[in-house]
Amino acid sequence: MIMKQIKEFVVISILTVFVLLSCKKEEQDTPITPSADILKEKIVKAKVIEYGSDLPIEGATLSICPTAVSRYGYECTGDYINFYSNTNGECFFKTDSVYLFRSVAKDWYDGTFYPNCLLDEWIHTNSDGTLYVPDSFTVRLVPYRYVTVHVKDTGTAVDTDKALLLHVRGLVYPRSGGDPGACSSPLLNQVTLRPQIDTTLYDYFIYGNADNEFIISEGVHSWENLPIGVIHREIKYIPKEDSLTVEIIY
Fold first, then answer.
1. In the 3-class helix/strand/coil scheme, how is the chain assigned residue by residue?
2. CB atoms within 10 A of CB 193
3. Parent domain of 136
């Protein structure tokens, strides 16, 4: 009786191994993307820091899709989930595939710059075609602040009585270096300047810990949000703290 049970167990085991091997071969013959299907489940750490100081930011909201697949580019298969940074600026999430980062938000901070300007490391395709998915990444948020701006018209920059416009935009430098032009914010805080008259602007909204480009122009392109007929342009570094008056002379 015992010998019969042993023989039956051996036969069942052999059939089981054959079935498993057959399934494995079928999976190998099925086209798969070398990304979501081969990645192992992992815990990813995201950290949110302040641009210009690298201080951790607590209470930032990160919108992340932990499950994504490759169809026409990568897309979320479920829902984007909100995660919140702790006192160390960190949050953790579990993923069993490619994850997608959509946004990060915190009061008095701007996270709307292009992702490659804010993120230190991100998912990319290697030269051999394989997908690199980091186990951690860092996001930088640019602080907002208010300053006083004093604009002085010397009457020498332009020979016209036409009213001009003052705008500002923040410049964010990627960690890897390079031209910040691709990482500039849209034009902010458009103000009309009266010809031949000095203007003082209180509580002017700009970026802290960052270079700000002040632009005086004749107008703005209606849909590209770019200055037209630039009369004056200068870049000034604005710290996050301290009372500050910015002098613009043109």
1. CHHHHHHHHHHHHHHHHHHHHHHHHHHHHCCCCCCCCCCCCEEEEEEEEECCCCCECCCCEEEEEEEEEEECEEEECCCCEEEECCCCCEEEEEECCEEEEEEEECCCEECCCCHHHHECCCCEECCCCCEECCCEEEEEEEEEEEEEEEEECCCCCCCCCCCEEEEEEEECCCCCCCCHHHHECCCEEEEEECCCCCEEEEEEEEECCEEEEEEEEEEECCCCCCEEEEEEEEEEEECCCCCCEEEEEC
2. 19
3. 42-142
242 shares its domain with 149: yes
Residue 205 lies inside a defined structural domain of this protein: yes
192 phi, psi to nearest 5 deg: -85, 130
Considering 127, 142, 157, which residue would you say is the last residue of a domain? Answer: 142
pLDDT digits (tens, 9 = 90+) for 179-207: 666 789 999 999 999 888 999 999 999 99
Domain count, the chain: 2
User: Of 162 and 58, which is predicted with more confidence?
Assistant: 58
- Position 177 scores a pLDDT of 63
Of 23-37, 92-106, 123-137, 234-248, minimum mean pLDDT range: 23-37
Cα–Cα distance, 65 to 51 (Å, whole number): 24
Neighbours of 111 (CB within 10 A): 20
